[in-house]
Amino acid sequence: MGFPDRKAALSADLFVKSSLDGVPSHGLNRFPVFVDYIRKGLVIPEAEPSLISQFSAFEQWNGNAGPGNCNAYGAMDRAIDLSRKFGIGCVTLKNTNHWMRAGNYGWQAVDHGCLGLCFTNTKPNMPAWGGVEPKLGNNPLVIGIPRSSGPVVLDMAMSQFAYGKMAIYARNGKEMPYDAGLTPEGQLSRNPGQIIADELALPMGLWKGAGLSLLIDMLTVVLSGGNSTSEIGQLGEETGLSQVFISLDPLVMGLGEDWDQHLDRIIEDLLGSRTPSDSGNVRYPGQNTLQTREENMRLGVPIEIDIWKKIQQLADEKDK
């Protein structure tokens, strides 16, 4: 589809890694939508980011409507490089596309021994608290912390459930396990198909999630100089996004060699939580990812049959 070989390999790798790590909603499940955006001309395969401005450890880049996952990977890679020099690096992107699985870039940072923080705005797909129309984005946030005995990587949208997760429930004809959105009349709903259609996902933490979404949108706009959620909504499609990538190198910053021990004590205390006898154990963000990855490397990456058929169909169309 017009991708240079290097970018084709990177983009494919990021899609498959998402499903490999147990996040198919933003991995292979999302691939047909990605192809549709390429066909519409919203994603330009050969486009490369261009530097807008640079101030010490802070850089602004224009994504030039290139593939969102490749742009995001390159931005985090550049932030890591800057943190190797300055201790901290911050790279922003404007005019980019959906970055697919947000957690990829948190894992990218921790795999290099760095603390990673990144966030993005989205099209309007969540109501302001007290409202019944989509005004906010669900604006995902990622925080990754390296740790010798297992990284801690938080990957979350500002909605109670990510839209990709709701789409899986909708395809399987299931209701969400908890309230996941609102009806246009303002009633709580667990109907994923209707919530997706109305774009009224429930803010996580109710008014708190709504407030955090607003602030993430404002930060991405101020730091990147790019579009806000409301401006993205006016484009008609989820394109022209704004994103921020921050890396901190603990060694360059002189944080000491005992910080890993501090993290271990925090995790040990957390995992020692009392739980009801039938609820299993508590876990920290990212705890099961490495186990899931190893299992899927051994058994194969699971994929919904309908998604696999769509990908095969895309390949057949391309061969013709």
Automatic annotation (TrEMBL):
It comes from the Bacteria. Pfam families: Ldh_2. Keywords: Oxidoreductase. GO terms for molecular function: oxidoreductase activity. Coiled coil: none annotated. The keyword Oxidoreductase applies. InterPro entries: Mal/L-sulf/L-lact_DH-like_ah, Mal/L-sulf/L-lact_DH-like_NADP, Mal/L-sulfo/L-lacto_DH-like_sf, Malate/L-lactate_DH-like. NCBIfam families: PRK13260.1. This is 2,3-diketo-L-gulonate reductase. It comes from Echinicola pacifica.
